[in-house]
Design goal:
The chain is about 40% helix and about 20% strand. It has about 375 residues and is α/β, with parallel strands linked by helices. The strands form 3 sheets. A 5-stranded parallel sheet has the order 2-1-7-8-9. A hairpin with a 3-residue loop joins strand 10 (about 260-270) and strand 11 (about 275-280). It is globular. The termini are far apart. Iron/sulfur cluster binds next to helix 15.
């Protein structure tokens, strides 16, 4: 039986919680739902909700964005990308285009799309030109990209693939020894594709309670209640609080497409560095669609720096859940959605942009600095 958000808020209020308990919500969609619904101010004060690394635009490595910009500027092609990617800034010299949006203003043929299917449509409509799809995203985006190739994409459609798996980033945090959270809310969309079992390691290997949640306040609050109840009872398990959508085993067909078209490899995450087995690359039989093999390389190895962010930008710490967005010194001052400095202020799934959109205007960086000085 499903319960309302009010029901779960009431149950949360009755829990004998410790002074402080931290729950990480991995997914940018979760952070958006939590912030826009005002859940942080509705739940008991001692529950801290920590946004995690689940924003694909935020963690897309700088070198991939740079490569997309350079390809679009120097080759005769149509570059397509999800809309959010167009405004992601890179640390190029000021005289050069520093985002795909600026490259488009400089004359490159760059088009925003909302779904992988549009990539096929554009490629078919332009058979005489190469169309490069800058495919950045997590499993939920990468699976349809794999399906697109498996089902037969036009020859002129190439991929600049920047696909990532979410669980290895959480594993990396847990293995760091200072994960910064006591319980985990696992992403519903990813679990729909890959199966909730993918998150069992959080409980089994690390002894941290976990629950899969959907994107409405009631399912998020149910997941919060579940992990807190588990903590209090000392009995940890992986709960599925989104059973109407997330099924055991996930989506078998999507997983088949992913396995057939791509292989898992180590991958760089912006602000974080290389995470083992966290990226996708195309299998050899799809080499003809791999822009990295088919066209001149504009990869700049010097851009693969751990923690690479624009000067003053704390996105790396925000993505890792080490600070809240408004603890960055630039939040709401030099950096706003209108003039983003870092990727977390660009994407609808970026914590900085979400907090700004949900009305958080205070900048707590001075208080953070004062605490550091005292500490
Ligand atoms: S407020 Fe802007 S500069 Fe600061 S972490 Fe967020 S995106 Fe980066």
């Amino acid at each position: 039986m499903k319960h309302s958000a009010e029901f779960w808020l009431d149950r949360l209020g009755q829990l004998p919680l410790p002074d402080k308990v931290r729950i990480m919500n991995v997914c940018g969609g979760h952070e958006r739902a939590i912030s826009l619904a005002g859940l942080r101010s509705a739940i008991p004060d001692n529950i801290e909700l920590v946004p995690g690394p689940g924003c694909p635009v935020c963690i897309c490595p700088e070198e991939d964005v740079y490569e997309a910009i350079q390809l679009s500027l120097h080759e005769d092609l149509i570059l397509i990308a999800f809309g959010d990617m167009l405004r992601v800034p890179v640390n190029a010299p000021k005289r050069e285009p520093r985002s795909l949006e600026q490259a488009r203003a400089a004359g490159a043929d760059i088009r925003a799309i909302a779904s992988p299917g549009e990539a096929v449509t554009i490629a078919r409509a332009n058979p005489e030109r190469k169309v490069v799809f800058f495919a950045a995203g997590f499993e939920t985006t990468t699976a349809p990209v794999a399906a697109m190739l498996a089902e037969g994409a036009p020859d002129n459609l190439l991929l600049l693939l920047s696909g990532r798996l979410t669980w290895p980033a959480v594993a990396m945090l847990l293995e760091s020894g200072t994960p910064g959270f006591d319980a985990l809310i696992a992403p519903g969309h990813v679990s729909t594709i890959m199966g909730p079992e993918e998150w069992a390691f959080v409980v089994e290997k690390h002894g941290i309670p976990a629950a899969v949640a959907g994107f409405r306040p009631d399912t998020l609050l149910a997941a919060m209640y579940s992990v807190l109840r588990q903590l209090l009872d000392g009995r940890y398990f992986l709960d599925n609080c989104y059973p109407e959508v997330v099924r055991p085993g996930g989506n078998a067909l999507a997983q088949t497409y992913l396995r057939e078209v791509m292989q898992v490899s180590d991958a760089n995450w912006r602000g974080i560095g290389t995470i083992p087995d966290s990226g996708y690359r195309l299998r050899e039989r799809y080499a003809a669609h791999d822009v990295r093999l088919v066209m001149p390389s504009y990869a700049d190895e010097s851009r693969k720096r751990v923690g690479e962010m624009p000067p003053g930008c704390d996105c790396a710490s925000v993505v890792l859940g080490k600070i809240y967005p408004n603890q960055c010194q630039l939040y709401g001052l030099a950096c706003t959605p209108r003039k983003p400095i870092g990727p977390c202020m660009v994407s609808d799934e970026g914590a900085c942009r979400i907090w700004w959109s949900s009305g958080v205007r205070d900048n707590l960086a001075p208080a953070r600095a004062a605490n550091r000085a005292v500490g």
